């Protein structure tokens, strides 16, 4: 019996996993996190105050105090049964990394002790030789460092019966270059904070810190583990490279917000319980549009913490799924013909005085502050749309963007009709001769045009990659498998730069004698005019929008290798260097890493396609051909007329034609891969894999394979079909 039929048979015997039941989330929330409340019980006053100052004010922690914090951390961890610790970091592999060490050591006299000091807490030295470095390091250079990030609390990871203390860290090379997602993000957040505070002080001198907030929405698929294991493409690529669409897919839209299947529901409750213990504030769960597709979403948090929590959640989900004999698919497009998965990033900015800068206020003054940050966001997206496009570029997301299920590759901004009218009014009414009497615009028109309850005055636009949704912007184009840090690093850096320029422009007018409010309005008007071409309220899926975007001069870069070019332009280098986020060397290295990641994934998919075609598809088709030929010959031998077996003959011919095409195209694809592999320039190689391998062969080979799936007998087909993976529970 094939793995496919064995998996189907086993579905009926799938055991239900008992899920711990907690009456209240609050009873367990954060119990495995070294929160400030927990720290208060395990640290001295000196150590506690130092930790708080580091978290809230970015103050450096003295080594002597670090020893006290380390002792408190160890005491807390040991009280919960922890024996090992690790520096938990996010290298540019797309997954998390950790090297576990025991608290156990031996003193010089042979006495065994448990020990964890400040030096170990602050810095470790994992072997860095095998992590992506983009040419920064030679193969034989292994040294790298992880450095503690106090702003993200330590937590305890429970895996089976084992418990490990995880210390969130950044990862740098021996020579100091950042080789992870977290380091640049922290720098971008600090740059945004500095620029935003200076602008916010126009309106409120009490603002001393501005924090970016993030609420992500994680979409994912869940299928049976045995069925997934019977698909080599899912095991190796995370997506199906072949698979005919079932008769029933998502066309009835009956899965969306439907009743959650019991087996999946048990899995959800299980991973939510683990997430709550880790302080991940999950709030929402529901069925998504495609069959077997689901979503979860948390309460908003500071960006740094939210990124850590999303990265951690993906690990937790994948691990917990195994307990339920399920497989979580986080690929952006695991199944053709139905919706793929994204990770909407809902972003805003909040002051330490309790104000959401992207929420309209109750007074003309607060509305002007809202308008300032609102328009600056639009200007930032307009000026750096190419970098936002690069931030979401990946082999997986290329399958999803613009596929009538996700935003197009054209970066545009949706603000809704009400705010579009406000921007239009400002553009036309604020003249170069703006005088004292025209201050009525500030005191009356804006207050009337920007109502306090703006949240529900416009519909949402799911086709927009960057949409205003009432008190935040939703970056909808981020892929489900992505690390949110990439998009958040870009977004907060471009905001830092735009706000910095805004302040210079406003101050220049004030120095010329303009009143502050009038100067602000003039620059707002200027930015509206300069960036209005990026505003779009219509259907982002339509061909008309693609044509209109081209007329406006908006880029429409559809493939990852070309989209990544934006990372290393002179404009990008200046942006990142002036805001101390990336050095030129780090930027070039990341560009190289992203290109390598793309071409390697396409290369793997090409090899898997060849393997499946030659070792699964063609043998099944040939076996069925033999059955047909035997049937035809037996009918001939019985003396029946040709009309009696004409159907079998036509079927045999069609299968033979498709078998020959598949075999020929697979061999041609192999040669194309060899030619691409001979290229020495990484960018040229990535472009070749996209244009000469993927674009030329993937769809054509798949087309004929999927046709064979409909022609070959179900009994002979060895790979689980879409109808089984998506619809069987």
UniProtKB/TrEMBL annotation:
Residue ranges occupied by any GS catalytic domain in the UniProt entry: 181-617
Pfam families per record: Gln-synt_C, Gln-synt_C-ter, GSIII_N
GO BP term (any one): glutamine biosynthetic process
SMART domains assigned to the protein according to its UniProt record, in alphabetical order: Gln-synt_C (SM01230)
Coiled-coil annotated spans: none
MF-aspect GO terms: glutamine synthetase activity
Lineage: superkingdom: Bacteria
Domain GS beta-grasp: 83-176
Similarity comment text for this entry: Belongs to the glutamine synthetase family.
Name of the featured protein: Glutamine synthetase type III
């Amino acid at each position: 019996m094939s793995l496919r039929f064995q998996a189907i048979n086993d579905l009926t015997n799938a055991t239900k996993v008992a899920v711990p039941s907690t009456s209240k989330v609050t009873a367990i929330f954060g119990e495995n996190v070294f929160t400030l409340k927990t720290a208060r019980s395990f640290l001295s006053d000196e150590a506690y105050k130092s930790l708080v100052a580091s978290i809230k004010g970015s103050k450096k922690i003295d080594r002597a105090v670090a020893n006290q914090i380390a002792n408190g951390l160890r005491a807390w961890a040991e009280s919960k049964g922890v024996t090992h610790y690790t520096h938990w970091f996010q290298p540019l592999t797309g997954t998390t990394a950790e090297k576990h060490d025991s608290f156990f050591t031996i003193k010089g006299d042979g006495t065994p002790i448990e020990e964890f000091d400040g030096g170990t807490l602050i810095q470790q030295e994992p072997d860095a030789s095998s992590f992506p470095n983009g040419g920064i390091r030679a193969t034989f250079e292994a040294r790298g460092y992880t450095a503690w990030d106090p702003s993200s609390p330590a937590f305890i990871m429970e895996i089976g019966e084992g418990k490990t203390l995880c210390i969130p860290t950044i990862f740098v090379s021996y020579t100091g270059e950042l080789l992870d997602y977290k380091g640049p993000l922290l720098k971008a957040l600090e740059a945004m904070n500095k620029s935003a505070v200076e602008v916010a002080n126009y309106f409120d001198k009490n603002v001393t810190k501005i924090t970016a907030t993030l609420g992500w929405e994680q979409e994912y698929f869940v299928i049976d583990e045995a069925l997934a294991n019977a698909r080599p493409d899912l095991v190796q690529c995370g997506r199906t490279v072949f698979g005919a669409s079932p008769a029933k897919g998502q066309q009835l839209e009956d899965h969306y917000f439907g009743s959650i299947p019991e087996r999946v529901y048990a899995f959800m409750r299980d991973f939510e319980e683990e997430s709550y213990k880790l302080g991940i504030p999950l709030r929402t769960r529901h069925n998504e549009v495609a069959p077997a597709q689901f979503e979860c979403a948390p309460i908003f948090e500071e960006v740094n913490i939210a990124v850590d929590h999303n990265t951690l959640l993906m690990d937790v989900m994948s691990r917990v799924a195994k307990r339920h004999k399920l497989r979580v698919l986080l690929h952006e497009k695991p199944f053709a013909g139905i919706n793929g998965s994204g990770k909407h990033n809902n972003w805003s900015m909040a002051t330490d005085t309790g104000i959401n800068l992207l929420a309209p206020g109750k007074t003309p003054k607060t509305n002007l502050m809202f308008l300032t940050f609102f328009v600056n966001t639009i200007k930032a997206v307009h000026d750096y749309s190419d970098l936002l496009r690069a931030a979401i570029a990946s082999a997986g997301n290329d399958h999803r963007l613009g596929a009538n299920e996700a935003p197009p590759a054209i970066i545009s901004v949706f603000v809704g009709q009400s705010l579009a009218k406000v921007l239009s009014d400002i553009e036309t009414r604020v003249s170069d001769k703006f005088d004292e009497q025209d201050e009525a615009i500030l005191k009356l028109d804006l207050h009337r045009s920007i109502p306090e309850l703006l949240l529900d005055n416009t519909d949402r636009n799911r086709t927009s990659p960057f949409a205003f949704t009432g008190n935040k912007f939703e970056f909808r184009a981020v892929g489900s498998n992505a690390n949110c840090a990439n998009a958040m690093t870009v977004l907060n850096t471009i905001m830092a730069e735009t706000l910095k320029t805004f302040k210079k422009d406003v101050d220049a007018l004030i120095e010329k004698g303009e009143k502050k409010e009038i100067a602000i309005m003039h620059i707002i008007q200027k930015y509206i005019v300069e960036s209005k071409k990026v505003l779009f309220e219509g259907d982002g899926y339509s061909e008309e929008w693609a044509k209109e975007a081209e007329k406006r001069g908006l880029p429409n870069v559809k493939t990852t290798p070309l989209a990544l070019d934006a990372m290393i332009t002179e404009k990008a280098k200046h942006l990142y260097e002036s805001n101390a986020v990336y050095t030129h060397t780090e930027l070039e290295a990341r560009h190289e890493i992203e290109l390598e990641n793309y071409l390697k994934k396409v290369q793997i998919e090409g090899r898997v396609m060849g393997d499946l075609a030659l070792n699964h598809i063609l043998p099944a088709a040939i076996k069925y051909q033999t059955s047909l030929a035997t049937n035809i010959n037996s009918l001939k031998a019985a003396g029946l007329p040709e009309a009696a077996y004409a159907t079998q003959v036509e079927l045999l011919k069609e299968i033979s034609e498709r078998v020959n095409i598949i075999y020929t195209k697979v061999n041609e694809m192999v040669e194309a891969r060899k030619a691409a592999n001979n290229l020495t320039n990484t960018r040229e190689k990535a472009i070749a894999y996209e244009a000469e391998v993927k674009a030329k062969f993937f769809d054509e080979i798949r087309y004929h394979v999927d046709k064979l799936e409909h022609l070959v007998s179900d009994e002979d087909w060895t790979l689980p079909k879409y109808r089984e993976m998506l619809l069987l529970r």
